[in-house]
């Protein structure tokens, strides 16, 4: 996976120890690391004539959701800390999939699922910190 080199906490208990600003920043880095690969994946699957239109539409929907989630996280970072104004574009470089190292579709989906599960877990932790009344 192209994000394997990105340091992320192993397990929920470690993620809970990370300060809110850092955890939010980590979520943003993961989302930004997937922008370009998802774009390439969408272009790749558009050329597969055997795929149903439903699959193509789902792939585009996922890309749009990642973009919307990234925008939301960037906005919350501004609310959480005025000192953090998003991630510098240079931080995302080196995490994209190079043309020489294109993954198979199944590997790509596996990696995306792994990272989306991490993002989902981190967002749940943040939600519990922000709104503890939800009995997390």
TrEMBL record:
GO BP annotations, alphabetical order: positive regulation of receptor signaling pathway via JAK-STAT; response to nutrient levels
Signal peptide range in chain numbering: none
PROSITE patterns in UniProt: SOMATOTROPIN_1, SOMATOTROPIN_2
InterPro entries named in the record: 4_helix_cytokine-like_core, Somatotropin/Prolactin, Somatotropin_CS
Primary site of residence: secreted
Superkingdom of source: Eukaryota
GO MF annotation terms: hormone activity
Compartments where found: Secreted
Keywords assigned by UniProt, alphabetized: Hormone, Secreted
Gene3D superfamilies: 1.20.1250.10
Secreted as UniProt keyword: yes
GO CC terms: extracellular space
Pfam families assigned: Hormone_1
Family to which the UniProt record says this protein belongs: Belongs to the somatotropin/prolactin family.
PANTHER family: PROLACTIN LIKE, SOMATOTROPIN,PROLACTIN
Protein name: PRL protein
Protein source organism: Corythaeola cristata
């Amino acid at each position: 996976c192209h994000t394997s080199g990105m340091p992320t906490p192993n397990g929920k208990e470690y993620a809970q120890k990370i300060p809110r600003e850092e955890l939010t920043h980590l979520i943003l880095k993961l989302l930004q690391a997937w922008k370009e690969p998802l774009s390439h994946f969408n272009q790749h699957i558009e050329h597969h004539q055997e795929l149903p239109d439903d699959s193509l539409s789902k792939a585009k929907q996922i890309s749009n959701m990642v973009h919307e989630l990234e925008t939301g996280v960037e906005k919350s970072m501004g609310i959480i800390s005025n000192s953090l104004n998003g991630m510098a574009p240079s931080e995302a470089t080196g995490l994209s999939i190079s043309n020489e190292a294109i993954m198979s579709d199944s590997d790509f989906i596996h990696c995306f699922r792994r990272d989306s599960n991490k993002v989902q877990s981190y967002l749940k932790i943040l939600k519990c910190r922000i709104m503890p009344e939800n009995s997390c």
